[in-house]
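Late entry, written up from scratch paper. The run itself happened at the end of the previous shift, but nothing got recorded in the book at the time, so transcribing now.
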Amino acid sequence: MAKTKKTAATAEKETKKTVKAAEVKAEAVEAKVEEVKAEVKAEEKKAPAKKAPAKKAAPKKTAPKKPETVEAKIAETKPVETEVNFFVEFGGVQVAAKEVVKNIKATIGKDAKEIAVYLKPEESKAYFVADGEKGEMDVYFC
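Output as recorded:
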């Protein structure tokens, strides 16, 4: 048993020495880190910071595309909606074509699938055919 006590006591002393040595090394490392940080800050003040070159992303691999038919391409294309502002001017005043169509719809009392408009500014009249029905209305150029 005496050997065990000595060995345990010796091991404890050696452990304490190792811990102290590790603490001393850790303090030295911390001091070195602080020193390096100070050097880096000093260098940053001296030279302007340079940006690191941007890394290029690796090209993505894609599966080869299947050949498309003309019909598929046409089906994918969507028509571009164009807003048209159309005005008729007569005697220095104008009326918007949208307003004429809106008033024609109000005159017939329903939406029509097809409307043909014949505008005669000199008579201040709009003659129209809406889904086969003929009609006329006054157009006021204001």
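The helical segments are 2-46, 70-76, 97-108.
(Scratch paper discarded after transcription.)
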